[in-house]
Amino acid sequence: MLILGIDTSSKTSAVGLLKDDLPLGNYTLTGSVYHSESLNEMIDDILKKQNLKISDIDLFAVGIGPGSWTGLRIGLAVIKTFAQTLNKPMVTVSSLGAYAENFKGFEKIVPVIDAKRNRIYYGIYSNKEKLKVIKEDCLENIEDAEKFFEDAYFVGESAKFIGEKLQKPYKTSQILPTDLCKLALEKYKEKGEDNFYTALPNYLNVSQAEREYGKSKKSDK
User: Fold this and answer.
1) Widest distance between CA atoms in the chain
2) If I label 204, which of 42, 62, 76, 138 is the partner at 20 to 30 A Cα–Cα?
3) Based on the domain organization, do 154 and 117 belong to the same domain?
4) Do 187 and 168 have their domain in common?
5) Over the chain, what is the mean pLDDT?
6) At what angle do helices 69-86 and 35-48 cross, to 10 degrees?
7) Any residues with CB less than 8 A from the CB of 62 and at least 6 apart, and which?
8) Tell me: the pLDDT tens digits for 121-132?
């Protein structure tokens, strides 16, 4: 089975291609480029390097966060469009889980994303043999979350920030897109495909635009 997976939960656009258990390619791009401008070019490029077409893909996978509000919407919209247009299955995966998948043999992995205003997105995972969720992805104040972090190993793009703040071991890392593909394939085999009509990003938070809209509505009263 040929799986195309993408993640846009952070400033990094990530595209991966997996054939069964064999990684065919990972493509990541970090910087000021908007996801909407980079994603399609990245997908075209990774397919061309393998002499493949988008219609050759058997399963589409996407990280649904938590993370960047705008990025999540863009990534999910791209995968939904491919799945619906080509009549192929799609599967959604936790972006935090995809971070954790890359750390085999660890008992307590905490992928973490800085959510600003002294808050973090995080989940707690074990990856001794197979990735298991210990604590579901959530959004909490750092002080409230700290009690869960005994013997934790922080990973992800914000690992340095939280690791140094709490004096815990950490490794700054990015999502390996083919890890996301592996998780999607496992989920597909166990639970089947997700419904592209009802699949939603895991925001865990309201956007800045919604906060500003809420303030304006209150001021109008």
Assistant:
1) 59
2) 42
3) yes
4) no
5) 91
6) 40
7) 5, 6, 7, 75, 76, 78, 79, 90, 91, 92, 93
8) 999 999 998 999
On the CB side of 37, CA atoms within 13 Å amount to 7
pLDDT band at 206 (very low <50, low <70, confident <90, very high): low
In the structure encoding, which two tokens stand for residue 161, read together?
């920030």
What does the alpha-carbon distance between residue 48 and residue 56 come to, in Å, rounded to a whole number?
12
- Give the amino acid at 13: S
Quick: pLDDT tens for 54-79.
999 999 999 999 998 999 999 999 99
Structural domain including 152 reads 103-172
Q: Judge contact between 97 and 109, C-beta under 8 A.
A: no
Q: DSSP letters of 84-96?
A: HHHT--EEEE-HH
Dihedral angle over CA of 17, 113, 99, 184, nearest 10: -60
- What average pLDDT does range 80-86 have in this prediction? 97
Residues 170, 159 contacting (CB under 8 angstroms): yes
Under the banding of pLDDT at 50, 70 and 90, the label for residue 34 is low
Q: CB-side exposure of 205: number of CA atoms within 13 Å?
A: 25
What's the rounded Cα separation, in Å, for the pair 189 and 91? 11
Q: Is residue 80 part of a domain?
A: yes
Q: What is the CATH number of the domain that holds 62?
A: 3.30.420.40
